[in-house]
Amino acid sequence: MGDTAALKIPAGLLPRDGRFGAGPSKVRPEQIEALAQAGGSLLGTSHRQAPVRNLVGSIRNGLSDLFSAPEGYEVVLGVGGSTAFWDIASFGLVENKAQHLSFGEFGSKFAAATNKAPFLSASSIIKAEPGTRPQPVAEPGVDVYAWPQNETSTGVAAPVQRVQGADDGSLVLIDATSAAGGLDVDLAQSDVYYFAPQKNFASDGGLWLGMFSPAALERAARINAGDRWIPDFLNLQTAIDNSRLNQTYNTPSLSTLVTLNSQVQWLNTNGGLAFAAGRTAESAGRIYSWAEKSAVATPFVARPEDRSNVIATIDFDDSIDASAIAATLRANGVVDVEPYRKLGRNQLRIATFVAIEPDDVSALLNCIDYVIEHS
């Protein structure tokens, strides 16, 4: 490819909204309107008073409805995002030993957290090459099985299901940070389905939320009642107790709560998780179909059943410079389609989160074709 930095893409080809990043996600205009409405009343007020607690209650109820939460499951939330939750779970959910599936950047980080914890046995870590995924294996002594439902760095999706033959009482923890609200799930197949709101929920980061089973709630209470030292900020039982009061242990970002609530209400009004999963599947399907027909592009994830519907990773052959395509798109207002930085591949990574219009995805593909044809 030649120099495409100055290439002007015709306005008629451009998507209406050019945000396709893997997080933070595109935010819908209606969420900004909700934030503006909250600006004169709710923002700048105490998070322990009724207006904000009612907002948190609306989020918790809305998520329970969205995920068709089974009897006894509770929505727990706290400050810090999914990164903080890995440490919280290491302190408050793993009794002795965890098994992790590591098939990308994010699964490996949780594995590192439990593996370094001095009060836990060495973790069992089952790895797979980027673009593929491993399977959990029942292992005596493992009391937590953990993996991402969607590996944001590579565009691989993994089933959410209990581990056959696992010890009685073992828990399944699913990192759903980029999956929740965009991929279908049966919550009964997991004990903690946790996520942050900056992906399909089109809000900001810095908050973690989890759908907790009764078994996970009991495990957290039992560990907390023992002799393990747990820092206050990372104390899961404290987060559970505060969540039951519709608040957080320390001050959350109220703007994050407002935009999150707006997105949850939008999803539920439009048909819930079936609507969301159908919409992301439509967008991702357009990308994979385009890549499979292309002479220069191919889906990075070889097995169709492993391909994510919320993160599509597309490789290009050596005649195409994917970084040049991304730079040209950025210069024309279409942003954040670069690959995950540590993967180091000649590819584009395109988010198809539920806030993104499928027709904008098609427009993006037309823009990529235009750049390739005119380079």
TrEMBL record:
It is an enzyme of class 2 (transferase). Belongs to the class-V pyridoxal-phosphate-dependent aminotransferase family. SerC subfamily. Catalyzes the reversible conversion of 3-phosphohydroxypyruvate to phosphoserine and of 3-hydroxy-2-oxo-4-phosphonooxybutanoate to phosphohydroxythreonine. GO terms for biological process: glycine biosynthetic process, by transamination of glyoxylate; L-serine biosynthetic process; pyridoxine biosynthetic process. Pathway: Amino-acid biosynthesis; L-serine biosynthesis; L-serine from 3-phospho-D-glycerate: step 2/3. Keywords: Amino-acid biosynthesis, Aminotransferase, Cytoplasm, Pyridoxal phosphate, Pyridoxine biosynthesis, Serine biosynthesis, Transferase. The keyword Nucleotidyltransferase does not apply. It holds the Pfam family Aminotran_5. Residues 142-334 form the Aminotransferase class V domain. GO terms for molecular function: alanine-glyoxylate transaminase activity; L-serine-pyruvate transaminase activity; O-phospho-L-serine:2-oxoglutarate aminotransferase activity. Its cofactor is pyridoxal 5'-phosphate. It comes from Arthrobacter zhangbolii. The keyword Transferase applies. Its EC number is 2.6.1.52. This is phosphoserine transaminase. It catalyses: O-phospho-L-serine + 2-oxoglutarate = 3-phosphooxypyruvate + L-glutamate; 4-(phosphooxy)-L-threonine + 2-oxoglutarate = (R)-3-hydroxy-2-oxo-4-phosphooxybutanoate + L-glutamate.
